[in-house]
Task: structure prediction
Amino acid sequence: MYVLSLFEHSLKLELAILELENENTPKESILVVPISKMPVEKKYLDPYNSDGLNLFLVSAIGFVFMLLGSMYGFVLYWGPIIWASIGLVAGTLIGLAVDYFLKKTTNKKRIRKHIIDVVLLVKCEKESADKIEKILGTHYSLGLARIE
Result:
């Protein structure tokens, strides 16, 4: 049986390994694999990315400008239909700009928590799996799984 655990690379991982060795788990049955991170730059217009374009904000600003264009179009020379269309285009462009700058400023401030850095795999007997899971849980493992 194997017990799989996910950790951040920290002192908690080292203490968990030390406690596993103190509980008579041989060093040969403990496998620690560091995960290398790939730097990936997110695209702004990616429809599958949750941090991408916020269509609600863009459409709301476009709608407000279209409404204002149609209202003031009755007074202006070209009429309400042309001014509503101009307001829609201008509001959409302003909404895209506002959303883009909001994403740029919040992405710089955002700190990603719980990045998985290390995978810990322990080969053990079925009877000692609960004890190993308890040890790994007390040392703040990010996730645990049993493989039989």
